[in-house]
Amino acid sequence: MSYDGGPVAALRRIAFLLERGREDTYKVKAFRGAAAAILPLPPEQVAAAAADGTLTRLPGVGASSAKVIEQAVRGELPERLAALEREHGGPLTGGGADLRAALRGDLHCHSDWSDGGSPIEEMAFTAIELGHDYLVLTDHSPRLTVARGLSPERLRRQLGVIDAVNDHLDGGFTLLKGIEVDILDDGSLDQDDDLLAQLDIRVASVHSKLKMDAAAMTRRMVAAVHHPRTNVLGHCTGRLITGNRGTRPGSQFDARAVFEACVESNTAVEINSRPERRDPPTKLLELARDVGCLFSIDSDAHAPGQLDFQVYGCERAEDAGIDPDRIVNTWPRERLLAWANG
Ligand SMILES: [Zn+2]
Ligand SMILES: [Zn+2]
């Protein structure tokens, strides 16, 4: 079969499909590394190396990537790509497609500045390819050292990088400034307030002491959602139901009190789309719906291909009968920003 996408696109698509199919990241790294290695080279140089079989002499290009490049350079659909399209290219869910089509962006993702696997610009390019108008970059906050949370200094530097990325885009898509800020034990947020004020969107999440007793956890979460800078309550129970990090039960708290606090403070409840989270659980999702909460359907992607996970959350929101207008990322960018900074 013929293929005219070129070798970089083939390698990126392979990596995307592996991530979307939840394959191990070490498999993905080889292809993303090879794409990054040949991207700056003149196409004639890549074609010449492909023709004389010397691609693997380029730093970052291994044998399986070289095969993909050789086939793409010859204008053939790379076998590896064809196989992955069959394996991982189909729809992820039976439902949720209509709501997914109504989403204009994603409010929660990570780059390799914290615990994500890819550079900021790769996350942005993939979001563009998925049809988004905006993507909020929400790397972790300082206390989450295991995830290389960003110090105030690093976050300030990241804001400059985001400006530079946007300068290179045509304005149809915007990379927005955000954070996934840790909710500390007393409900305060783990970043300087003047810095939080410079961001477009702040997702606040509990990542520590998940087993705190219910009364204390309720106070902690209510305080966090009432914080004037908080826009989204991330993965509210913290449960893990499957996957290579193991499983754990959700935190215990007075969900009605927390969701009522969300309504009062105009904070959205996140529908976290990651298959190992499915957070909130269905009963809590329905409670938040009945209490009158706003929602944000987020991928919480740690790799570009995981940006496609949003449809899992869309399927759950559709099943729960949630009105799309109560989902803040169906809103145009201006409305979203007015809500988040009003
Ligand atoms: Zn999180
Ligand atoms: Zn996250």
From TrEMBL:
<dbReference type="GO" id="GO:0008270">
    <property type="term" value="F:zinc ion binding"/>
</dbReference>
<dbReference type="GO" id="GO:0005829">
    <property type="term" value="C:cytosol"/>
</dbReference>
<dbReference type="InterPro" id="IPR050243">
    <property type="entry name" value="PHP_phosphatase"/>
</dbReference>
<dbReference type="Pfam" id="PF02811">
    <property type="entry name" value="PHP"/>
</dbReference>
<dbReference type="InterPro" id="IPR047967">
    <property type="entry name" value="PolX_PHP"/>
</dbReference>
<protein>
    <submittedName>
        <fullName>Putative hydrolase</fullName>
    </submittedName>
</protein>
<feature type="domain" description="Polymerase/histidinol phosphatase N-terminal">
    <location>
        <begin position="105"/>
        <end position="185"/>
    </location>
</feature>
<dbReference type="InterPro" id="IPR027421">
    <property type="entry name" value="DNA_pol_lamdba_lyase_dom_sf"/>
</dbReference>
<dbReference type="InterPro" id="IPR003141">
    <property type="entry name" value="Pol/His_phosphatase_N"/>
</dbReference>
<dbReference type="InterPro" id="IPR010996">
    <property type="entry name" value="HHH_MUS81"/>
</dbReference>
<dbReference type="InterPro" id="IPR004013">
    <property type="entry name" value="PHP_dom"/>
</dbReference>
<dbReference type="Pfam" id="PF14716">
    <property type="entry name" value="HHH_8"/>
</dbReference>
<dbReference type="InterPro" id="IPR017078">
    <property type="entry name" value="UCP036978_PHPhdr"/>
</dbReference>
<dbReference type="InterPro" id="IPR016195">
    <property type="entry name" value="Pol/histidinol_Pase-like"/>
</dbReference>
<dbReference type="GO" id="GO:0042578">
    <property type="term" value="F:phosphoric ester hydrolase activity"/>
</dbReference>
<keyword id="KW-0378">Hydrolase</keyword>
